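Hi D.,

Good news: the full-assembly prediction came through. Inputs first.
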Amino acid sequence: IQKHKRLDAAIDAYYNDQATRKQDAGPSTTRINQLFDSYKDPDVDQIKVDGTIRLCEDLGSDPEDVALLALAYELKSPTPAEWDRKGWVDGWRALGADTLEGMRSAVNKLRGRTASDPVYFSKVYNHTFDYVRTPGARSLGLDTAIPFWTLLIPHGLSDGAIAHRPTDGDESMGVEEGWQNEYTDWWFEFLNARGSKGVSKDTWSMFLEFIRSIDRGFANYDEEAAWPSTIDDFVAFARERLGTS
Amino acid sequence: MPPANADLATTWAFLEEGVDHIMTKLQTGVSYTKYMSLYTVAYNYCTSSKMPTSASQDVGAPGRSGANLMGSDLYTNLIRYFVQHLRTLKDASDPLQHEPLLRYYASEWDRYTTGANYINRLFTYLNRHWVKRERDEGRKGIYPVYTLALVQWRQNFFVHIQSKQQKLAGAILRLIEQQRNGETIDQGLVKKVVDSFVSLGIDEADINKASLEIYKAHFETPFLDATEKYYKQESEAFLAENSVSDYLKKAEERLREEEDRVERYLHTTTRKLLIQKCEHVLIREHSELMWDSFQNLLDFDKDEDLQRMYALLARIPEGLEPLRKRFEDHVKNAGLAAVAKLAESEGADVDSKAYVDALLEVHTKNSETVNRSFKGEAGFVAALDKACRDFVNRNKATGTVPTRSPELLAKHTDALLRKSNKMAEDNDLEGALNRVMVLFKYLEDKDVFQQYYTTKLSKRLIHGVSASDEAEASMISKLKEACGFEYTNKLQRMFTDMSLSKDLTDQFKERMQQNHDDMDVNFSIMVLGTNFWPLNAPGNDFIVPTDIQPTYDRFQKYYQQKHSGRKLTWLWNYSKNELRTNYTNQKYILMTSSYQMAVLLQYNKHDTLSVEELLQATAIPKELLVQVLGLLTKAKVLVSDDDEQFDLNPNFKSKKIRINLNQPIKAEAKAESNDVLKTVDEDRKYVIQATIVRIMKARKTMKNQPLIQEVIQQISQRFAPKIPDIKKAIETLLEKEYIERVEGTRDTFNYVA
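Then the structure:
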C-alpha cells in the first residue's frame, strides 16, 4: 500500500507539473465558463438533471459514483443534479482543470483521495448528509440514507479512509481488526427491522466515528459514552449476532 | 542556741536535733521559740559566711564563694539525715506486705511529708539563695528542701519496696481487684498511696511542674494490664454462662464502675486510657457477638437491650456501622413481609388503605425504635430511610411496576379527602394526611403521584365530593412544602378555577333573570383551564338536546362577550343532569349523565325508539350508546325485549325519590390509569429535556457523563430518570439544535444560544 501511495503521489506530481507548465496563468476562467454554458439548462443559470447526465457521460463516470459526491462538495453543488455557476467556476479553478480532459483526471484523483484520506473522507461524508436530504427535513429517510452509505462506506474502507483507529492511538492493528463490510449490511438490516423514521444528522456523523473506533468483536464499545441510542441498540444487536454465529 | 558565727559541727548538731524532732515526734509539738531559734541558726549559718573572714572552718573548692560552701554543707548534712531516717523506715517495712504494708507506707508518708514541709520552711533561706543559685547555674540534683525530701524518699524507700516484685503497687492492685470482686476496701488508703506516686514524680527541669512518670511507670501501666486481664477473663466467663442481654447490663455497669474508680482514687489522666482499655476488652472483643445478637433483639422488640447495645457499641468507632446495615435489612424485610402478607390475602389488587396502613405500620414501629433505642442517631435515620425507600417502591404488591406505589398512595389520599370518608375529627384527617406525607417522602416517582393526585382531585372537585376545602388546602401545602411551588401549581389553579366558576354561574344566572324569563333549566357551569385539568374532551360527536339548546347558546354567547377569544370546549362526558319525571304518578328525580339525559329527553316526544333512531338523534357513538341503554334498562327506566327497540317504562317505580343513574362505566377506570401513565411518560420527556437545556445554558459546554449525572441529580427529586431516556432527550435536543457536539470530540456538547 505504501508503495502504491508513493506511486500515486508521483503521478499526481507529474500531472501537476505538466499542468502548471502548460498554463502559467492557471486554469482559464473563460474556458470553465464555456464548459458550464455547454451543460447549462436553457431556462436558468444552472446545470440541471439533463446537463448532469451529459456531464457524467463526458467525465466517464457513473451517476452513482463516490467521486461525484466529492465533486459536489468541491463545486458547492446545492442539491443533487444542480450546479451553480459560481461554485462551478471557483471549484474547477481550485481543482486546476479547465478542459474536459483535465476535469476527468481531477475526478479520478478525487475518487482516489476519498478512498485514502481519512480527513477528506469525513468532509465528503458529512457534507453528503446535508447535500442529499430534503430541504427542511431534519433527518434522512432510510431509503435515502442506505444507498448513500452503500456508496460511501465500502469506498472508504477500500483504501484506508475509514481505517480502524483504536482510541489509545495504536495504529498498528490494521483494517482487519475493525469494521467489516458485512457489518454494514447488519446495520441496514437492524435499521430496517427497527422501522426507524429516519437518520438524524448526529447519528449520521457519529456512525462514521463509530465505524472508525469499534473493534471487530464490538468489545471496546462504551455504552456510557455519548453515542446516539440507535448505535447503542445496534451494538447490542451485533453482539448478540456475533455470539450466536 | 549556738552563736551567730558558730561552726558547722555546732550548728548542725543543734539543727539535727530539731529536724529529727520535727520529722519523728511532731505530734509532741514544737514551741514557737524553738522553731524560731532553729530558723535563725540556719539563717545565721548561711549568712555568716558572707563576711569576708576566714571564719570558715572547712576548706571548699577554690573559686567558690563562701555562701556556696556554707549552703552546700547544710545541704549535704540534710541528705545524710534523710538517708539515715529512711533506712529505719525501710527496715521496718521489709517484713510487711499487702494491706499492712500499704497502711505502714501511708502513715509514714503522712508523717514524712508533714515534717518535710516544716523543715522546708525552716531552710527557706537556703532554698531562696543557695539552692536557687545552684539550680540557676544548671546544677543537676539540687532541689529545694521539700523536694529533696521527696527525692530521698523515692530513692531510699520507694524504689526499695518496689524492687521487691513491685510489692507496693501489687498491694494496691490486689485491693482494687478485691473491690472489683465486690468486697469493700479502704479507698482512702488506696487514694493516699496512689497520690504519693503522683507526688514522687519530679520534673527535673521545672520542679513546680508535676511529672506523672513515677505514677505511670509504677502504677498506671501495671494497673491497665491487670484491668485488661481481669475483664478479659471475666467477660469470657460471664458470656459462657449468661445471655448477651445480661452481658450488656454487666458491661454497662462495669464501665460505670471504672469511671467512678477514676473519680475516687486515680489520677484523672488515667480516665481515658482506662476507659479505652475497658471498651476494648468489654466491647470490641465481643462486638461480633453483639452484632450477631442484634437481629434477635430487634425481632423480640427488646427495647432496653437495644438501647444498651447501641450505647455500648457507640463507644467504639466501628461499632455502629454493622448495626446500621443490619437494621436497614431488618426494616426492609419487615416492609416486604408486611406487603407480601397483604398481597397473599388480597391477591394482586391490594386495597389502597390496607396497603398504606401496612407500609406505615412498619415505618412507625421502626422509626420509634430509632428514636427510642438509637437516640435518633443520624446513621440509623439514614438506614431507616434507605430501607423504606426500598420497600415502599418495590414490593410484592408493586411487582415490577414502579408506578404502583404512587398510584395506591394517591388513591388512599383521595379516599381520605372524600366526603364519604368518616374521619370523626379533623385532627384525625390531618394526622392521616401527615402520615401520607411520611410515605410520600419515600416515593421515587413523585411525578406519578402528582398525576394521579391531579386526576383524583379533579374528580373530587367536579363531582363536588371533596370533604373540605380546608383539608384540600392543607394537603396541597404539604405537597408544596415537600416538592416546591411547581409541583402544586396546577393543583392550586384548579381551586382558582372552581371558585371563579362559582362566581361565573351566579353572574350568568343574574343576567339571565334580567333578560329572559323562560329559564326553566337550572344551570351551573365550571370553566376549567385546559392546561391545569387532566380532562379530555369527548372524542365523539354529540347533538345538544333541543331542551337545553337555548341555555347552551346563551351561555356560549355570554362567555364570549365576557372573554372574547377564549375557546370553550364542552366536556359532555363529565357533565351531570337531573331530570324530573312527569309521566309517572310519583314524581322522581333522575340523576343522569349527559348521554343518559340526551337519550331520555328523546322520550319526551316518543314512547318507543330504536337504537338506530337514538343514534341519529343524539350522535352518541354506538358502543357508548349501547352501554348507556344497558344501564337505563337495568334501572328499568327503559324496557326492551330485543335490545333493538327501547320503550319508556311508564310504570317505573322506585323506593327512592332521587335516583342516581350516573354509574361510571367500567372501561373508564382502566383507561384512566393508562392515561395517567401516558401523561407521566410525556411529561418526563419534557422534564428531562428542559433540565438538560437549563444545565447546558448555565454551563455552556459539558461532557456527556457529567451532564447525565447532573440531570439525574436534579430530577431525582421528582422521579428516577433512566439513562437511555436521558440519552434520547440529548438526541432530540441535538436534532432540534438546542445543543451541538463540539467539533472534533465525540462526547462533549455545546449549548447553542
